[in-house]
Structures are given as C-alpha cells and as structure tokens.
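protien #1 (seq + structre)
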Amino acid sequence: MVLSWIVNTLERDLSDNVLFTNVAIEIWADLEKRFEQRNTPRIFQIKRDIATLTQDQMSVSTYYSKLKGYWDELSSLNALEACSYGALKSILAREEQQHLMQFLMGLHESYVTIRGHILLMSPLPTTQKAYSLILQEERQRQIASNSTINNESMAMLSISNKKNGSGINGITKSRHNLRVPTAHSKAVKVVLINNQPATMYKPQSIKLITYSP
C-alpha cells in the first residue's frame, strides 16, 4: 500500500525509474539522496543571502520577516537526524543563538546601543524577544521624530507670521475712527489692512485728505 502511494505520487520520469523496486524503504532512500543533492545549491544560496543581508533602509519588521523566511526555508531543507532529547535540545539552542547573532549583525548601525544591551543580557534573549525590543525602539524613535517635525513646523509658521505681520488668517485688521481735516470736519471711518488704509465709509461730498506721519 505504501509502495503504491509513493509510485502514484511521483512524476512520470521518476516513477519509471522506481517502478521495478518492490521495497518502499528502498525507493524512499533513493529519492531522499536524489533530492538532497539537488537541495545543496539552494542551501548554499540561502546561507549566502543570510550572511549578506543587512537592514539598510528597510523597517525592522520587513528586515526580520525576510531573515525569518530564509531560516524557515533552510530548516525545511536541512532535516534533523534522529538523536536523543538532550542532543536535540542542544542543537536547537545552538541554532537559536545563531539566529540571534545573524539578526543583530544585520541591524542598522543606529541600533548599536540597544544591540549592546541585548548582548549583555544573561541569559541571552530569544530572537523573537530581541526583535520585540528592537521594534519597540523603532516605534519610540518614530514618535519622537513626528513630535520634532510638528514642533519645527509650528516654529516656522510663527516666525513667518511675525515677519509678515499677519495673524491667524494672514491679515491683521485694526479699526480706528480717524478724524481727518476736511471741509466740514466730519469723521471718516477707516480700516487698516496690513497697515494700508481702506476707507469703509466716505460720503461723496467729503474729500479725504491723508497726512504722512
């Protein structure tokens, strides 16, 4: 039954090569050796990509996700051999430490301080914990950066308004009742807009005379 399942799930060119093998375990061992050899170039490529991967302009989340994708694929290609529980635990702990070092080495140099704090922790945190700490640091920086930008924008706006002598709406309005000498000495109501006089009410019979200060 197992033999039939293996043969039926193989591609035609592979099933023809194992068609006359009567033992399932022999077919499985043969296939394992073939695909193990084919995986070697891909394993080499993944390890090279991991060694050269750096954060650069990527966010911490994007960088970690890309690195974890390489780790997961590499783990699927490198099957663990049968061993005792103690040996397996030791292998996994060594692999976890290797992942932590690879993650920290590829971080942008702006995280050098928090990276140093993580390396001084005893025991060393897991890669997931280190990622969480770095991500928190990134978010705090973004909040501080946004606050700085807002403060600078408000300062620039205030300076610009002072230079232009303008208020909230860009125009400073002040109203005064000015008595200007005329033929009949009547008051003329004037509005100053940006320090320029604009007559609001001026009878046609009155001639407005402007005096320079």
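ok now protien #2
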Amino acid sequence: MALLMSFYARMRNIQQKNEISNKNKENYAFKLYTFERIFPIVSDQREIPHPRSGHRIGCNSTNLYVYGGYTPQYVDPASGILMQHLFNELWQFNFATRKWMLLPGQETIPPELASVALIFDGKTLMVYGGTNLPFGEQSSNKLYFCVLTKGNFYHGMQLVDASGSMPPPMYGQALVYHNGYLYVIGGTTGYDYTCDIHRINLSTMKWEDVFIDTGGLDYMPAGRYRHEVAFDGEHIYILGGGTNVTAFDLEYIPTFNINEKKWAKKQTKRDPIERQNCGIPEPRMCHSCVQYKDENNEIYVYIIGGNNGPDTVYNEMWRLQLSTLQWTKITNKPLPFPVYFNSACVTQEGKMYLFGGINRDESKRTNYLHSAWIVIPKLSEMCWESLLHYNPNLCKSSKAELLNQGIPAHFIERLYDNIC
C-alpha cells in the first residue's frame, strides 16, 4: 500500500506541473459501466480505420487490434467510384498514446473479411472463416494466425496447414479456445445455417467433428450465424444469433457440454428490476459480447447492441452471471446510439472496448471507439488513466525521463509496445 500511495503521489505531482496547460480540461473521474468515446490523436483522417461493420477486434493491456470489415460506401481512390469494399487490413490502436497504426503485411490477409471469427490471447491472433463478396459465394474454412508481440519479427497472417475432418466453408461462426483445442460453433453458407461443432488440435493441426446434427435428437439448437458464445471450462453457451428471417431468444440458452458431447437448453433468470421484455434481453443477432472472470472466479458475460431486423436495433448492455444464469440490465449509461455488426473486447484489467458497426440513428457505418470499465480496477490503473488524461503527450518523453519521474516500468512499456 505504501508503494502504491507513493506512485499516486508522484503521478499527482506530474499532473500539477501541467495544471496551467490543462486548466480548461475536464477533471478525471473513474466511471463504472459508462461508455465514453475515445478520440484518437491524428493529423490526417487516413491515419484511422475507415468506418466499417462485420469486422472483429481483440486486445491486451496495451493495444487493440481491428481485423477486416465491410462497407457499401467506399470511394475507390483510383476511379472515384462509390462501391462495396472489404478491408484487407489489420490496425493497431495504442491505448496510452491514442494513435492508430496500419500494420504491414496486407498481402498476407485472406480475402474472406466479413463476419470472420476471431480470438486473441494477448499475443497470438487467430482468425477463422469469413466471407468475400458477394456474401456467401466465397466463404472460408481456413485458420490463420498472427503473432503480435514486441520483439518478434512480424510475418503478417500465417495460414495453418491443417488436416483431418475440416468443417465446411462458412461465415458468422463463433470460437472457443480450451486445453489446446480451438472449437468452431455454427455459421452459415449464406443459405443454410448450422449449430454443428468442430475443433482443431493446435498441436497436431488436425480437425475433428465434435457434434454434427444428424436428426432424431431430443434437443438440438437451430442453426444460426452471428451468435456469440460464453464458456465456463465445461459448457459452451450460445447467446442469440439468427438467420435471414429470425433472431433467437436469450431466455432459454442452448448449452453444450464438451465432455459429455450433449446439448441442453437452460432457462435464465430474469432481472427483477428491469421491466423491458420482463427482465430478459430481447432476441438479437449481430451483437457483441465479452466475458470476464473476477477475483472470485465468477464469470460474467456482457452483451452489447445487436439487432432483430433492420428496424429493431439496441443500444443497451446486459450482464449474465454464468454460475446462476442471472440476467442484469446495466442502466448506468447506454451506448450513445443503437448499433449492430459491432465488435467488442475486454482487457485483463476489466476495461471493455467497442469499435465500429452500423449506427441505426445515422443509417451508416461508424469508426467510433468507445470504452467502459466493467469492474473496479486496481488503484494503480486509475492513477495511470488519470496521468494520461492530464498528460496526453507523455509518449514524447524518453523512457529514462519517465523512469526518473517514478512511473513504474510496466506502465511505461505500454507507451512503446508497438509491433512495428
């Protein structure tokens, strides 16, 4: 505690030195469950990702990564013609410097860039499936990975040379990683929908079928795409999703036991305070989702946004406690606009980030980045946020200068931890 208070005192001293230049700046205040827009530091709009939907994001404590995506309103630089466009891009956003960087290696990115499935463990990005244009006519069943750690030579996206019983090419799947296996759940060809489960052994790179719907079962969830999943170490929970005609409910959740290889349908508990839809999130698809395990090993799942048809789009956030299946609507402050085909991720410290999607209010795609704390973090994290709030140009100082000012080395590294 003494060390922490010493750190706080040093941070406060640095902030006071900048009071003159920051005298009109709003005071820093920690806010739980409150979405705030992050404004990047740029000199040219070409230094930020184009508005998009159908992309995926992942993050660690330092950086956020945006992969792929789609827009129907892209002006071709060569011809000036307005056209549909898929983004063969991987962007990096540094939280501390608030700067975007387009990573090299675009030639290594596969063409199926809409509604891919993505998982990021903080070091390695894994991307599976997705579709090219026209949607569904060229889909993927290939797995790519990309190592995103400082000090490693950046190779771009690397195709996995896989064998075994490969899943059919699809898009809109969901992923779970567990004990050396990557599970792929559901998806669509553009015409047919499935909730089948496949997995690949990441040591042998061999695929195998986990569960295939052959009919005659007491219970098998309907096929779907653009669903999200949660995982408790034994059960995969299927959250929403839909087809071209319907979105699935969130009161009864399809649950798959990976050990017994059996499906079950579990009823969730209603929020006793929330009256909307009797305390259960309304059916939806194309929402975003994050999962967070707290210090008591309780797993909480958050769903954000989503839609049930083009006219029913949500700007709300709901929380599901997996151990009790209790829903709670987070009412502190909703998203600033209803959004779907968005993507979310969460840091290990408990800060959620939300990027892009279709803004229903403006009927267009967005490239806004929002964040919200979903836990109360360590005091040192609040100190670091406060320091960056009052000192946005901290990265212009050298590492030696920052160390001499008493800033812990692991925070300083966040300023300079870029891949390229």
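The first strand starts at residue 36 and ends at 38.
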